[in-house]
Predict the 3D structure of the following.
Amino acid sequence: VHELVEYVKRKKKKGIYQEYEDIRKEPPAGTFDYSRKMSNQIKNRYSDVLCLDQSRVRLCQLCDDEDETSDYINASFMDGYKRSNAYIATQGPLPKTFVDFWRMVWEQMVLIIVMTTRVVERGRVKCGQYWPLEEGRTEQHGYFMVKNTHIQVFQDFKLSYLELYNTQSGEKREVCHYLYVSWPDFGVPKSASAMLDFREHVLERRRAAVQSLGSSWRGPPGGPSVVVHCSAGIGRTGTFCTLDICLSQLEDVGTVNIHQTVRRMRTQRAFSIQTWDQYYFCYTAVIEYAQRHGRLSPVQWSDSEPETDSE
Ligand code: PTR
Ligand code: PTR
């Protein structure tokens, strides 16, 4: 236990900081042409947070619309641990993009939405109120009806069971909406332990949801992507997904490589993980997880991890 903790402490100042600085210095791994198109610019919440063309989620072209930009949403597919497109990382929907957001959820057969921002933080709007907040309430977005059937409240998060009804096809689906409330932007969660509990909960739900899909799911065995969003869809979203990937790897093979995970993630969602604190949080949360599961001895940091500073 101590060795690992010491390792991180020693690395803290120079090693881990340097690791993150190196990651930040790398130029984005592709182009942002679709995000930059004139007609798409209003669909980006932040003009400096765009999505890479290579991994962007395309909406199905609407047949009554010849406009070639109608397939754009600021959302990126991201791989998980041994699972391609495990996540869709996206920005907090804007009122202008609520319909696009629900279209994406429908088209990609998303069953779980993880929201790691609050709608308003420090007096500023971070995300639109795109889902019905109260139990029993139904809202319409384009040809989708969204009903909040019931809510479970936990200490650090809220789980809403939503019914998504496609009025065009007459089909209905259940979508779980997680709202994590104690994570300020550019910050880190109050406690790693609360975050770990949160992740476990989401995992459990996902397993259940994938199981209930049964043979109606024709995609990859891991089931549909989980939508993860915060305000910009890079800082907190990147941190949550990094942690999820690293813990899955830890469970599977007993090693983690945070550095490579973040680098790889950034080739799919540029600028993932926004601050050094968030990067460091991934390290401390992995340690906490290992301690909690009594897996600390087999934990190893993969070889390609940069050398510990000897000073
Ligand atoms: N231009 C915005 C800003 O600096 O405020 C972009 C931005 C906003 C970037 C929020 C990241 C943010 O955090 P998160 O991705 O966690 O919502
Ligand atoms: N609004 C943020 C800012 O300017 O601080 C947006 C942002 C920040 C975008 C950093 C990209 C950034 O790049 P990196 O995470 O690679 O430093």
Remarks:
- The pocket of O-phosphotyrosine (ligand 2) is lined by residues 24, 48-49, 271, 274 (CB under 6 Å).
- Helices lie at 2-25, 33-36, 38-41, 98-107, 192-213, 235-253, 258-266, 276-292.
- Residues 132 and 148 are 6 Å apart (CA to CA).
- The two ends are 22 Å apart (CA to CA).
